[in-house]
């Protein structure tokens, strides 16, 4: 099977000039159904109580203070609003005034960055009104409770009769694709206050079976997002989208499809030019990336032949041309690139080479024309800070994509935060990758970090003891012995205020870490680690570790699974590069689609894709963000996926 991949790859290189171009798809958009939109009544006017007349003197005093509080909030003076509402002795006895008081209190708490407290405040309302939906949406957005955010959007649409609004559906879609401080695959139950708010949101519509209806709509939104995220290419996404729509004809996304999904009907496979070192010192790395790209091409080519039932003719798979970047200097390489006519340029692999090529001004053959825009670049590395990453004039978009240890550190930070951990001990060797990972974690972490770094594995036990305060405990023991002038039986105690251990260590060092933690009575602390700790045939020695891992190995799609079997990637040291190549091919098709519709997509457009090297998020250009899978090492040494805790609120509940 590997020989078949390599043979086809050579055929692509040598027979490029004989390949046929893809057929252009007819320009069409998804049909939008015209429906009779039901509109549900609900009470409104959240602050009507502030304009009513009251005979009770205390009620009048409270009313005046609450009016002043609302005015202060409206002009953004939150500190003064807080002082005003604090002067209200207690929650007013008048029901309407009491609810106004609670709403204002929740607004202040939200503006002060206390969304959890604001959620609890809103739950004490006697009666919710339409205006409360937006407040709840803002509260949930602050704590990344995306299920609650989507629920609020759904209720707003039902109350306003906007389930046939493309603008509103596009807004929900953008929320599902947006960034989050919590892991994208976090799927534990919501915290109780958020769950109760979601129930009350549904009830606000005042329709039979409101909670079931709203929940179904929300869950299908997430199902749609997951469906599109699994698509390797825009062509596959188009098919999956049409199938989903046929199965959910009454869902708002089917009635009025979000704009990005409408554009899936317009896809023309790109011509891809690939620059890789296929000879010399880095030939092995270049060949691994190439073979991954060929695997993506083969899957796409097979899909283009088997597509049926589409309103347009299936488009041929992308054309791919490989150049040996190690055999050409910069000028010759750019000359070859210009002559290839590629829509997307993938590579080079070396950072320094990429920096030089990006700095080259585009030549006339790359000039933007109405018939053919300038090509986009997917540079297979991360540019250093200060290096030009924006395209020069008359050049296409530039994307930076490479597996980086910083991605793993940030993935761990999300999972640690989701589990409510605050105080960490970071155990790290002194290699450059561990330094970079530690720096990335520190830059993102708001809690306490205790660093235990070492040079050699035999130093781990002592280093951990020092970090955990054992040395200080021993010093206090010695001082006490000297004071009493006698021997004292003593067992040093470690600090007990740590929540978790983060290990930036190799497989061998990780094995040494286990007894070191046991020696210092810290073996009950959860240990989070990276792929560097999981590169061994037998991981049973680190059973219980939570490690970042490539979806290619931990949770592969059919294409990744086939490539893994063909190249025995579980035993392959260059597995990250195979994943990089597979995803580079797929990203090239998506980048071409994005650039084709760039003018119709919002500047903040983002797309989340579940691929071989991680969950990738890309926009109209820039760094491709990457989040890895978190897996737990089982007692037999196998990786178990989706081991999520249940105590902290998630990004969403499906």
In what range is the share of β-strand residues?
5-15%
CATH architect. name of the largest domain? 3-Layer(aba) Sandwich
CATH topology of the largest domain: Rossmann fold
Binned, the helix content reads: 40-55%
Structural class of the helices, strands and pairings?
alpha/beta
- Termini, distance in Å? 39 Å
Short recap of the structure:
The protein has 654 residues and is α/β, with parallel strands linked by helices. The protein contains 24 helices and 16 strands.
List keywords for this structure.
16 strands; Rossmann fold; 654 residues; 6-stranded parallel β-sheet; alpha/beta; 7-stranded mixed β-sheet
Overview of this protein structure:
It is a single chain. The protein folds into three domains: 158 residues, no CATH class; 180 residues, Rossmann fold (3-Layer(aba) Sandwich), CATH 3.40.50; 154 residues, Response regulator (Rossmann fold). α3 packs antiparallel against α4, α4 runs antiparallel to α5 and α6 packs antiparallel against α7. The longest helix is centred in the middle third of the chain and has 24 residues. The chain has 654 residues and is α/β, with parallel strands linked by helices. The chain has 24 helices and 16 strands.
């Amino acid at each position: 099977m590997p020989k078949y991949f390599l043979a086809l790859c050579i055929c692509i290189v040598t027979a490029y000039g004989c390949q046929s171009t893809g057929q252009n798809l007819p320009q069409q958009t998804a049909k939008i159904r015209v429906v009779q939109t039901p509109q549900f009544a609900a009470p409104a006017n959240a602050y009507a109580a502030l304009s009513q007349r009251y005979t009770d003197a205390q009620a009048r005093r409270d009313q005046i203070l609450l009016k002043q509080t609302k005015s202060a909030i409206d002009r953004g003076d939150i500190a003064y609003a807080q002082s005003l509402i604090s002067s209200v002795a207690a929650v007013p006895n008048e029901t309407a005034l009491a609810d106004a008081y609670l709403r204002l209190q929740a607004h202040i708490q939200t503006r002060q960055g206390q969304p959890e407290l604001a959620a609890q405040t809103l739950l004490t309302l006697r009666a919710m009104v339409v205006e409360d939906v937006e407040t709840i949406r803002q509260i949930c957005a602050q704590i990344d409770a995306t299920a609650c955010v989507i629920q609020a959007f759904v209720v707003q649409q039902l109350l306003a009769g906007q389930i046939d609004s493309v603008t509103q559906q596009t807004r929900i879609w953008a929320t599902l694709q947006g960034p989050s401080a919590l892991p994208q695959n976090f799927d534990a139950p919501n915290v109780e206050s958020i769950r109760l708010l979601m129930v009350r949101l549904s009830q606000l519509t005042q329709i039979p079976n409101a909670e079931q209806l709203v929940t179904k709509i929300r869950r299908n939104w997430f199902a749609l997002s997951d469906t599109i995220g699994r698509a390797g290419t825009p062509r596959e996404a188009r098919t999956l989208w049409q199938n989903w729509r046929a199965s959910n004809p009454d869902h708002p996304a089917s009635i009025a499809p979000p704009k990005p999904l409408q554009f899936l009907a317009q896809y023309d496979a790109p011509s891809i030019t690939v620059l890789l070192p296929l000879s010399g010192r880095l030939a092995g790395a270049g060949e691994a990336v190439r073979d991954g790209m060929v695997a993506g091409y083969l899957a796409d080519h097979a899909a283009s032949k088997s597509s049926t039932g589409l309103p347009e003719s299936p488009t041929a798979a992308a054309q791919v041309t490989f150049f040996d970047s190690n055999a050409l200097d910069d000028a010759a390489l750019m000359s070859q690139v210009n002559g290839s006519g590629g829509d997307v340029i993938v590579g080079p692999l070396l950072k320094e080479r990429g920096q030089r090529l990006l700095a080259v001004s585009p030549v006339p053959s790359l000039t933007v024309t109405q018939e053919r825009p300038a090509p986009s670049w997917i540079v297979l590395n991360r540019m250093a800070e200060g290096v030009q990453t924006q395209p020069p004039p008359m050049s296409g978009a530039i994307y930076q994509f490479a597996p980086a240890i910083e991605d793993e550190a940030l993935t761990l930070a999300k999972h640690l935060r989701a589990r409510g951990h605050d105080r960490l001990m970071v155990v790290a060797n002194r290699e450059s990758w561990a330094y970079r990972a530690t720096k990335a974690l520190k830059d993102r972490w708001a809690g306490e970090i205790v660093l235990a770094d070492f040079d050699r594995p035999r130093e781990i036990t002592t280093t951990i003891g020092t970090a955990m305060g054992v040395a200080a405990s021993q010093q206090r023991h010695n001082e006490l012995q000297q004071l009493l002038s006698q021997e004292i039986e003593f067992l040093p105690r470690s600090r007990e205020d740590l929540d978790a251990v983060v290990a930036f260590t190799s497989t061998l060092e990780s094995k040494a870490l286990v007894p070191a933690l046991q020696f210092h009575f810290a073996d009950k602390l959860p240990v989070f680690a990276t792929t560097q700790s999981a590169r061994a045939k037998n991981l049973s020695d680190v059973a219980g570790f939570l490690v970042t891992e490539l979806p290619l190995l931990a949770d592969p799609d059919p294409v990744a699974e086939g490539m893994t079997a063909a190249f025995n990637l579980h035993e392959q040291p260059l597995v990250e590069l195979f994943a990089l190549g597979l995803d580079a091919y797929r990203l090239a098709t998506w980048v071409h689609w994005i650039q084709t519709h760039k003018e119709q997509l919002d500047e903040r457009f983002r797309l989340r894709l579940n691929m071989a090297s991680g969950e990738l998020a890309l926009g109209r250009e820039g760094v491709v963000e990457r989040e890895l899978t978190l897996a737990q090492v089982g007692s037999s040494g196998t990786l178990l996926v989706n081991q999520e805790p249940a105590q902290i609120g998630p990004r969403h509940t499906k």
